[in-house]
DNA sequence: AACTATATATAATA
DNA sequence: TATTATATATAGTT
């Protein structure tokens, strides 16, 4: 996607790696933003830079998406208000403004989110403590969620399998080439 | 990026919206994968499809990335270890090995389990409250997978909420804590 | 940090 | 779905 084709392998030169990261992170966030607007999709991305610094992107915000992901209720029939209208197609400046807002705006809700996070920690520990609670889940709508998530996991896997079809130089094929098994 | 330039505004036609979502989600995941390999970046993506279904992507895995975010908390009692040093970044073989492991780990069961998952999904729509059938899954490997994936989803949500607690733009170096996962 | 030449993603089409 | 023309991202360059 540039002057020359590159192999998808770790960039050795730290300088080049940092430049590549900056460019591609911007690209990824832009793609994420476009996807969210085009398809009315709410999404969040978290990552560590080569310098091990955390970066995130969220639309409408990381915490909102995360919140919904965790606390998703069976409100799939509820019509949401569109945060982007037809004639409000954002230009590049709008996009960058929005990105900046999203990237820095989370500070505003720190205290509020701290409560939630604490609550979530509590929940995790509870779940970790007793496996019997898993059985509790089976009698709840949570199982419905698990089924959905499982299907999604398969979709993700298929996506990765698709990626694996593209040869990566310097990588052993041993694990990959034994794919494509059918059911008996 | 296609035959014609499009405005970044919500796609009206549901059919087209679904097609666009599928294409761009694949593209986003591919970009995310490439970024993670090129720059040694670990990242996770969660999103809701137009049909409000959750999707996720993680490299090297969702829960690993979630772990690092989750345990990045500035708590004082956690052992500090700099697993994030530059030269600890996984090389391409490591990355591909892990990816391959993940791929082969799920690929073996994809066809078989996809059927089951589809079947489950169908049942879910036909009988939303059919708990009896759900209980039949209690002892199946499929359920195991579902539970794991569900835990992954929770972990991502948690890490994102925790991320929201700490602004990530322009942040100075922080000590990142290490922690080994209980699962697997 | 800006600038191209080129690779890649994808919108429209078949 | 699969293909193809075009828009976009970005690798190397300045």
From TrEMBL, chains A, B:
Biased composition, class Basic and acidic residues, residue ranges: 116-128
Any single Pfam family the record assigns to this protein: SRF-TF
A cellular component annotation (GO) from this entry: nucleus
GO molecular function terms listed in the Swiss-Prot or TrEMBL record: DNA-binding transcription factor activity, RNA polymerase II-specific; protein dimerization activity; RNA polymerase II cis-regulatory region sequence-specific DNA binding
Record carries keyword DNA-binding: yes
MADS-box domain residues: 1-61
Keyword Transcription regulation: yes
Keywords: DNA-binding, Nucleus, Transcription, Transcription regulation
Residue numbers spanned by region Disordered: 116-136
InterPro entries reported for this sequence: TF_MADSbox, TF_MADSbox_sf
Location within or outside the cell: Nucleus
Main location: nucleus
Protein name listed in UniProt: Agamous-like MADS-box protein AGL29
Organism classification: Eukaryota, Viridiplantae, Streptophyta, Embryophyta, Tracheophyta
Protein encoded by which gene: LOC106766628
